[in-house]
């Protein structure tokens, strides 16, 4: 769904698994269940059907609480507004805006994905201007969270950037899951990724990111699944844990709206608007 500006970068996506977060439902190309039995699905077909790897689907907005926790267990709570739009041609746009606390209020992150690249801009009120996030910087942590700029920008490109292998199915918290091993096909900060996908709803419940030594580096968990007004199961809490640093980032959905978002929200000019 997202193709990064540096095509070789394969560490994106998980996000949403942020954001990474709930509301989480991704546009997918379904494989008709009546034509393909679950036992016969390939790893690629499972990836095609994935839901739950980005902040919002289509156009809409959400208010979220983003909590960062350091290795001593001390927490800092932030409130953000997320706006998202998906055009008919597949172009996806996302705007994050910090509402509180006061020292970060007004900070905005804009990402536009379409064609061969993803463009990311960060605006910080103290500087009074926006700056482009590009190259290796997209793989650095965003605003003290455990998500990278790529991951927080709301897209995933597993199918484009990883070679998928289906492993033996497993139960996770009472839910039967497909288990996939994803090996990056290009440059990546990860050696491989392991993903547990709920068979009934095609939602990734857990994603483990391994370093090149085969040790777990980060773990993403989609939690507190609830049925939406449309009858779809969606996570309402996302937790990204940095196993190496001993930190974690928790995202909770406070409210959502399916109302279309004006196009002007997804412009560099809008970033400067108070």
Characteristics:
outer membrane lipoprotein receptor (LolB), chain A; mainly beta; globular; 13-stranded antiparallel beta sheet; 274 residues
Could you explain how this protein is built, in words?
By secondary structure, this protein is mostly beta strands. The chain has a single domain, classed as outer membrane lipoprotein receptor (LolB), chain A (Clam), CATH 2.50.20. Helix content is 7%, strand content 44%. It has a 13-stranded antiparallel beta sheet with strand order 6-5-4-3-2-1-13-12-11-10-9-8-7. The radius of gyration is 18 Å and the shape is globular. The N terminus is likely disordered.
Topology (SSEs and partners):
Layout lengths: L42 H6 L11 E10 L5 E12 L5 E9 L7 E7 L2 E8 L4 E5 L15 H4 L5 H4 E11 L2 E10 L7 E7 L4 E8 L5 E12 L5 E10 L4 E11 L10 H4 L3
Antiparallel strand pairs: 1-2, 1-13, 2-3, 3-4, 4-5, 5-6, 7-8, 8-9, 9-10, 10-11, 11-12, 12-13
Please report which band the strand proportion falls in: under 5%, 5-15%, 15-25%, 25-35%, 35-45% or over 45%.
35-45%
The SSE string, one letter per element, is HEEEEEEHHEEEEEEEH
Count of β-strands: 13
Work out the count of structural domains. Answer: 1
| Poorly predicted segments | 1-36
Radius of gyration: 18 Å
CATH architecture: Clam
Number of helices: 4
Identify the overall geometry: globular
Largest sheet: 13 strands, antiparallel
Assembly state: single chain
Structural class: mainly beta
Strand order of the largest sheet: 6-5-4-3-2-1-13-12-11-10-9-8-7
What is the mean predicted local confidence, pLDDT? 82
CATH fold label: outer membrane lipoprotein receptor (LolB), chain A
Instruction: Estimate percent helicity.
Output: under 10%
- How far apart the termini lie comes to 31 Å
Q: Which CATH first-tier class would you pick?
A: Mainly Beta
The CATH superfamily turns out to be: Lipoprotein localisation LolA/LolB/LppX
